[in-house]
Amino acid sequence: MNLSYRWVIVGVGALMTCVAIGAMFSLAIFLAPMSGQTGWSRTGISTAMTLDFLVMGAAGFGWGALSDRIGPRLVTLAGAVLLGSGLALASRTHELWQFQLTYGLLVGLAAGAFFAPMIAAATGWFTENRSLAVSLVSAGVGVAPMTISPFASWLIAAYGWRSAMLIIGIGAWTLLIPASLLIRRPPVTAQGAAMAGRSDAPGLSLSAAFRSPQFVVLSSTFFLCCGAHAGPIFHMVSYAIGCGIPPMEAVSIYSVEGLAGLGGRILLGLLADRYGAKRVLIAGLMVQAFAIATYLLVDRLGQFYALAVVFGTAYGGVMPLYAVLARESFGQHIMGTVFGAMTMASSLGMAFGPWAGGRIFDAYNSYMWLYLGASGVALGAVAVAFTFTARPQRESLAAA
């Protein structure tokens, strides 16, 4: 197969991460109208997102391992069917516990079928510019706040939250089922085999990979990084509204973060190809930590926009770099499983933020302690990332 098809893989991957993660994260847009109409607490609704992250993490590990065996096409096809079904069923619930289980379990299970398998697939199609390719696949997550979130806000205003959620579910079926049929495994070429000899660890088992210091450090950093920014991202719209920003303009802040995240993925991907993924990761994590704390000092729309650019660039840009470092240390043959396990660790961190933010707001009617605590966790991610040392790889023997 023509290697130019790898850019189709990148495009499909970006679309899938945009729709899947965007649909799941759109709950942040539904939060206030749902609470107002149903009387459900923000903590209760946020718990559905916590379940999403927990289930997505475990599912990402399983889906990633399955994609190593059968390829990513069937995995993403199953995820597409589940995602639309979960959103459609959640839109019809009338009890909080029903919504929590439906949205939290089905949508989370579906979302896990896209990120790790498609990131792993992209690393197999590229030898040069791998950081950029992975960043572009992950860029779909950055596009989501600019597309799915405003669309959800408009649908809610026009039709109510139930119809809006149903329409998004139907849209997920329409876009993702055909897209999954375009996915192919990377071809085995002479160049690819030669590169595999240099970059894949010979005989490295999953148990050895999971016990390695590289996996422990990367997973721990990923966990702390996502635990730090999950709460501020999810509660950003509600926090801005509480500062006096009108709802539609508050949603636009979320969109600016997404646009900055898109740019950050491309920028940090290019920088990682040039200067090394570890250096760029640490720099991005430091910027993220200080940006989170700075949100406590802003209360005007222009200030929110400016900080959203910095925060979005940082948290969006670092996300693909974990996959790049994992591929460099563990090779392609177990990439789906290893990165799926790392994604599970990150999802555990993501699960805590929305729940903690809801609890803090319900208890103090303020998000101050959320942003202070999240900034501290982000600094912890910086400290752990400093300890990472890449795993030595086998060098191929050139033929005489």
In words, what does this structure look like?
This protein is an all-alpha fold and about 400 residues long. It has a single domain (about 5-185, about 195-385), classed as Growth Hormone, Chain: A (Up-down Bundle). It is about 80% helix and about 0% strand. The chain has helices spanning about 5-25, 25-40, 40-70, 70-90, 95-110, 115-125, 130-160, 160-180, 190-200, 205-210, 215-235, 235-240, 245-275, 275-295, 300-320, 320-330, 335-365, 370-385. It starts with 5 loop residues before the first helix and ends in a 15-residue tail after the last helix.
Brief rundown of the structure:
The chain has 400 residues and is mainly α.
Layout: helices, strands, pairs:
Elements: H1 6-25, H2 27-38, H3 42-70, H4 72-90, H5 96-111, H6 115-125, H7 130-159, H8 161-180, H9 190-199, H10 206-211, H11 213-234, H12 236-242, H13 247-275, H14 277-294, H15 301-318, H16 321-330, H17 335-364, H18 368-385
Key features of this structure:
mainly alpha; 0% strand; Growth Hormone, Chain: A; 400 residues; globular; single chain; disordered C terminus
What radius of gyration results from the CA coordinates? 20 Å
Q: What is the H level of CATH, i.e. the homologous superfamily? A: MFS general substrate transporter like domains
Helices and strands, in order, run as HHHHHHHHHHHHHHHHHH
- Under CATH, the topology can be stated as Growth Hormone, Chain: A
- Percentage of residues in strands: under 5%
Give the CATH architecture.
Up-down Bundle
